[in-house]
Structures are given as structure tokens and as C-alpha cells.
Design goal:
Blueprint: H1 3-10, H2 19-34, E1 35-36, E2 39-40, H3 41-50, H4 52-97, H5 101-128, H6 134-174
Antiparallel strand pairs: 1-2
Helix pairs in contact: 2-6, 3-4, 3-6, 4-5, 5-6
Length: about 180
């Protein structure tokens, strides 16, 4: 047996039966729901509980991240939208029309993250429009996190169902 055959026999190169894909999926959604607009959510809880300097630090960090995020969106949003659309369209066509499992996996990771990105733009614009401090800021960040977690929950569920379907299909056809 040649070297490539041995490597591909030892390491399963299919996405949905690969442990690393599921680890990436878990880490992706864990970190996405923890970092709300670039701010760790424990900082939000500490600011709400303690007030004072913790609250001022939170407001400053949210202001900096919101301004930075909206600057990027305003300056290159059209280019980023086109690039994201091209990537997702290509992944969807390769994955679901041509049956490339890696493209399916990338689409199932990328599409929900695009929804989180759109939610981030919406939240950043709301924060800049007047929800920069106090209870209104905490409420906006909490709402952003809850919606992100719901997107993640649906994404993980759909990805798990599709992955099981793929594994069963390959198992039935392959064996």
C-alpha cells in the first residue's frame, strides 16, 4: 500500500465522520456566543453586578468595538457582501448539487455565521443610535447573545441531522 493510501485510511477525510469537524463546530459556537460584539459576556455580567469602573470599561470596549465594526462595514461592506455571497453560493453548489462533503460542511459552518454577522451589524447600529450605556446597553448585549445562541442551536441541530444522514448514506452505500 502506498503512503497516501495509508494516511487516508488512518485519517478519515470525510467531514461529518471526522471528530475534528465536530470539535470545530463546538468551539465556533461556544466562542461566538461568549464574545458579544468583541466583548466577553462575563464582562457584561460583572459590569451589571459591580458598576463603577467595570461598567465604564464595558461601555468603552463596546464603543471601540462598535465603531471599528461599523467602520469596516461602511467602508468595505459591499465587497464583503459580494465575497461572502460568492463563497456561500460556491459552497452550496459544490456541496449540495455536486455532493462534495467538505463544501457541505463549510456551508453549514459559514451560513449561520453570516446570520450572526448581520445580527452584529444590526446590534452595532442600535448601540450607536442610543443604546450606549447602562441598562439599555446590557439589554442589547443580552438580546444579541440570546439570538446568537438560538442561531447556534438551530445550526448545530441541522448540522447534526445532515451529518447523520451523510454518515448513514455513505455507510449503507459503502458497506
Amino acid at each position: 500500500m502506498d503512503w497516501y493510501g495509508t494516511v487516508f485510511e488512518v485519517i478519515d477525510m470525510r467531514s461529518f465522520s471526522n471528530l475534528w469537524f465536530w470539535i470545530v463546530l463546538a468551539v465556533l459556537w461556544s466562542s461566538t456566543s461568549h464574545w458579544v460584539l468583541g466583548v466577553p459576556f462575563d464582562m457584561v455580567a460583572r459590569a451589571r453586578r459591580s458598576g463603577g469602573q467595570a461598567e465604564q470599561d464595558l461601555e468603552d470596549l463596546v464603543r471601540i468595538n462598535t465603531n471599528r465594526f461599523l467602520y469596516i462595514v461602511d467602508e468595505s461592506g459591499l465587497f464583503l457582501s459580494a465575497l461572502t455571497s460568492a463563497f456561500l453560493s460556491g459552497a452550496a453548489i459544490l456541496g449540495f448539487w455536486y455532493g462534495v462533503e467538505l463544501a457541505q460542511a463549510l456551508f453549514l459552518l459559514g451560513f449561520p455565521m453570516t446570520l450572526v454577522g448581520l445580527l452584529s451589524v444590526y446590534s452595532a447600529r442600535r448601540i450607536r443610535a442610543g443604546e450606549q450605556a447602562g441598562e439599555r446597553l446590557w439589554r442589547r448585549l443580552r438580546l444579541h447573545r440570546v439570538v446568537t445562541q438560538m442561531i447556534g442551536l438551530v445550526s448545530i441541530f441541522v448540522t447534526a441531522l445532515w451529518g447523520m444522514f451523510q454518515n448513514l448514506s455513505v455507510g449503507v452505500l459503502g458497506g
